[in-house]
Each structure stands twice: as C-alpha cells, then as structure tokens.
Amino acid sequence: MIFHSWLLDRRELKKFYWKALGKLREVPFESLVMPPLLYSPLKRLGHLERPLLFKESAVELDAGIASAGFSHIRQPPYDWHGLKRKYAEFVLFQHTISGEGRLTFEGKTSPVLPGQTMLLSFPHDNRYFLPEGGNWEFFYLALRGPAVARVWAHLLARVGPLVQFPEGAPPVSTAARVCERVLRGDIASAAQASALAYSLAMEALDAVQRSDDANVPPFVRRVREYCRQNLGRPIGVPQMANAAGLSRHHFTREFQKCVRISPGRYLMQLRLDAAVELVQEGRLSVKEIAAHVGFSSANYFGKVFTRRFGVSPGAFKESGMY
Questions:
Q1: Among 83, 86, 158, residue whose Cα is nearest residue 119
Q2: Alpha carbon distance 247, 237 (integer Å)
Q3: What is the rounded CA–CA span in Å between residue 138 and residue 97?
Q4: Where is 213: in which H helix or E strand?
Q5: Which of 83, 94, 80 is nearest to 124 (CA)?
Q6: What angle do CA 37, 43, 44 make, to 5 degrees?
Q7: CB under 8 Å to 134, separation ≥6 — which residues?
Q8: What are the backbone angles phi and psi of residue 131, rounded to the nearest 5°?
Q9: Got the DSSP string for 19-59?
Q10: Which of 12, 17, 18, 19 is closest to 4 using CA atoms?
C-alpha cells in the first residue's frame, strides 16, 4: 500500500513537471534567465549616475557617451523636459527594468513599461516623469555625436520613442554592460567611448531593421520593390496602392498600420537611402543623383538630404567618412 501511494505520488509529480515545463516553453528563455543576470551588476552598484568627460580628442569623433546611470525612483519629483536639459544635443537610451514611468511625446502620453526602451533626442518637446505613487527602475545612456543622432532620427521615424527590444539580447544587453562600465569608471579614453556608442547605435539600428524585415507583409514587399525599381519616376499613393493590389484608401490605412509611417514618408526614405549609396559611389553629380532618385529639383533634394543627414550631399561626399 505504501509502495502504491509512492507510485501515485511519482505519477502526479511527473504530470505536474511536464505541465509546468509546457508553461515555461510558452515564455522566452531570455526573459526567465537573462534579466536578473544582466541587471544584477547594475543593481549591486545601487543608485548611481556618472558623466563621462575626457580631454578633447585629437580628431573630431562622430559618436560619444555623455553620461550613464542606474536608478530606482520611488517617489516624485522625477520629471524631465526635453527642452530643458543641460546638454545642447544628445540622444537617450533608457531601458525600464521594473515599475512604470510616463512619456509625453508629440502631445501623446504613454506608460513606459518593463522591457520597454525609450529612444529620445534632445532638444525636443518631450517629457518623461514618474507618476504620483509609482516607482520606476531603469538604466540609461546619454549618447552624442552626429552619427548616433542620425541613427536616432531614423529609429524615431521608423518605430517611435518606445521600443520593445528582445530582453537579454542586443542592444539592451550591450547597453547594460556599457552602462556598468561607465559607472565603474572602466572606460579609459574618448576613442573607446566613441567605439562603444557607435556599436550600440548600430545594434539598435540592426535590431529594428531585422524586426522590420521579419514582419513585412507581402503587400509591403511588393510596394518596396516597385518603388526601388521606379525611383526616378513620379510615384504617388495611387501607384503604390496599385503595386500592393489594394484600393487607395485600404492601402493607406493598412500601410500606415504595418509600417507606422505614411506611404509618402516611406517613399522619401527609400529615395534618400538610394541617394546615399550614389553619393558614396562618387560617379554622379548632385544634380544627376537628385534626378536619379526622383527629385525634380536639385535644390530641394539638397535641403531634404541635409535635414535627414545633417550635412549637404556635397559635404557628405567630400568628407570621405561615410
């Protein structure tokens, strides 16, 4: 009888085990294992913020780290406005570990939840803060330089200021380790800081692009291919809708939902991406490049290019850095 009861207990335990294992398989492994391991070095340091200052570099660097910090804010005031920051121009990578913050961006206020990363640029009319009665645990990196500014402008246009990167994977894991190194005083030079900042920006860009490619619906792929093959011709929403095989109204609505920007803005990004490649090749004049990617005016092309990349097509070409 005792033996039978023991067998029954073993069988029940086995059922419980496989049921629990099945539940675990529904949850990403990184979210169960990685975050505690990833953030524990920061948690051991406690609340800490540190600016990163070096002597002026012998050459002008295209990326850098302004400051880093780890905080667990449990009561207001914690309230930052994007037009009232001390650094003239910088970008922010701030990842929420636990609790919840608030972000007001372009007039819309949203919760900032665990696992979400804020991508913000400054100066900008944004505000992030701790709501009354809340708590917010996070780490951040403030980066600067024209290279990271261009990447952040692209990311904000593509996915907006709140991103759910895979937990425990780049760029979140890289950002956490860089933040720890800054807080420990383990970065020895401006050049080293520049390399780390640029690497983080590229990982964020790559993560967004991989996510885009993996989730692109067939109709968006058809539109993208049509636009790339016809950049030198006039293209409007009717032509894009026709390539998608949808009515104009349905196409505009579904495209905005999937890509998160308007068809016109998406087309402009494709034109400018193609323009950069042609500028880098160096075979065509600025006027020829403008016509090749669909701009009727080289002057307008120059203005749009400068607004997107921070330098004119001519300066971009002559710099030799890109």
A1: 158
A2: 10
A3: 5
A4: helix 190-214
A5: 83
A6: 95
A7: 99, 100, 101
A8: -70, 160
A9: HHHHHHHTS-HHHHHHHHHHHHHHHHH-SEEEE---PPPSS
A10: 12
Residue from 272, 322, 316, 317 nearest 293 by CA: 272
Instruction: Say how many C-beta atoms besides its own lie within 10 A of residue 277's C-beta.
Output: 10
In the structure encoding, which two tokens stand for residue 204, read together? 């964020």
Distance CA 8, CA 290 (A): 78
Q: Can you tell me which residue has the tokens 């009665």?
A: 133
Is residue 154 a contact partner of residue 268, using CB atoms and an 8 Å limit? no
Cα–Cα dist 111/102, whole Å: 5
174 neighbors 200 (Cβ within 8 angstroms): yes
Cα–Cα distance between 116 and 76 in angstroms, integer? Answer: 21
Token pair listed for 21:
């294992």
- Beta bridge partners, 142, equal 67, 92
CB 203, CB 170: distance < 8 Å: yes
Residue bearing tokens 């398989």: 25
Q: What string of pLDDT tens digits covers the 322 residues of the chain? A: 333 443 445 555 445 444 444 443 333 433 443 456 789 999 999 999 999 988 776 678 889 999 999 999 998 789 999 988 765 789 999 999 999 999 999 889 999 999 999 999 998 889 999 999 899 999 999 999 999 998 998 888 778 899 999 878 889 999 999 999 999 999 999 999 999 999 999 999 999 888 766 677 899 989 999 999 999 999 999 999 999 999 999 999 999 888 878 899 889 989 988 888 888 788 899 999 999 999 999 999 999 888 777 678 887 766 544 4
106 Cα distance to chain centroid: 17
CA neighbor of 220 nearest in space, from 186, 187, 257, 189: 257
